[in-house]
Amino acid sequence: MRCPGQDMQYWKPGSIFEVDCPRCGRPVEFFKDDPARTCGGCGLRFVNPRLDFGCAAWCPHAAQCLGGLPEGLIERRNELLRERVAAAMKRRYGKDFGRIGRAGRVVRRAERLGRAERADLAVVLCAALLHEIGGEDPAAEVRGLLGELGVDPALAAAAAEAVARFASAGPGDPLEWRVLHDAWRLEAPGIAGEKGTEGVRREALLTVAGRNAVEEKSGSEPVR
Fold first, then answer.
1. What are phi and psi of 218, to 5 degrees?
2. CA pair distance 32, 51, nearest whole angstrom
3. S-S: 45 plus which of 38, 58, 89, 127, CB 3.0-4.6 Å?
């Protein structure tokens, strides 16, 4: 079954429109579901300014539906996914503001480390937000929660495995586990076993970005 938003039989007047090229001003025709179009005058490829990208943040068929995505839309997709999972996390944790606060700190640190390390940010963000989910089988809990949100099953499985394994991750483990491990040790030191962020040992961290964060606090030269 094709998504109704992409099926032209459901379209209304205004679903096909023109946008002036931001470089040369020539009109460029867009269909409402075009992620981007290339100007026939100057060759500039630019993003559809009217694209409703919300569903693609969690829809498992987004890649087939929208095709290749410009970098700006990939960023927006990660932002929307983060917002949706964060809202579900807060509902799950309820009034446990300690867990909510720690998750917020860890996800912010994990995003910075993940960008620096070029990790899969969708996996990193989901896992960092849900890393304290608890239960007898945390991986199953994460898969279930993300499944309820309609998140791509492969993404849900990768995030669930990261949640289950990050605390004991080692140098040879997937990058996303190592990013979450370092963010957790830096931002939740009491739970991670350190007495404070300043007590985190550089050699205990598994990413260059994580070790650089410790070096920055100590005023030493960053790792190259």
1. -85, -10
2. 6
3. 38
Residue 148 is assigned to a structural domain of this protein = yes
CA torsion sign, 189 to 195 to 196 to 199?
negative
What's 148's domain CATH number? 1.10.3210.10
The residue assigned the tokens 């960023």 is: 75
pLDDT tens track for 162-210: 999 999 999 999 999 999 999 999 987 666 555 555 556 778 899 999 9
Q: How many whole angstroms separate alpha carbon 107 and alpha carbon 115? A: 12
Residues 133, 43: one domain?
Answer: no
Residues 107, 82 contacting (CB under 8 angstroms):
yes
Question: How many folded domains does the chain comprise?
Answer: 2
* Contact (CB, 8 A) for 127 and 179: no
**Judgement on whether residues 25 and 82 belong to the same structural domain of the protein:** no
The pTM of this model reads 0.67
Amino acid letter for position 7: D
Q: Which residue, 152, 150, 153, 181, is CA-closest to 167?
A: 181
Residue 205 shares a structural domain with residue 113: yes
Which stretches does DSSP call E strand in the chain? 16-20, 27-31, 36-38, 45-47
Residues with Cβ within 8 Å of 90's Cβ and at least 6 positions away in sequence, in order, are: 100
Could you tell me whether strands 36-38 and 27-31 are parallel, antiparallel, or unpaired per DSSP bridges?
unpaired
Residue 27 β-bridge partners: 20
| 3-class DSSP state of 191 | helix
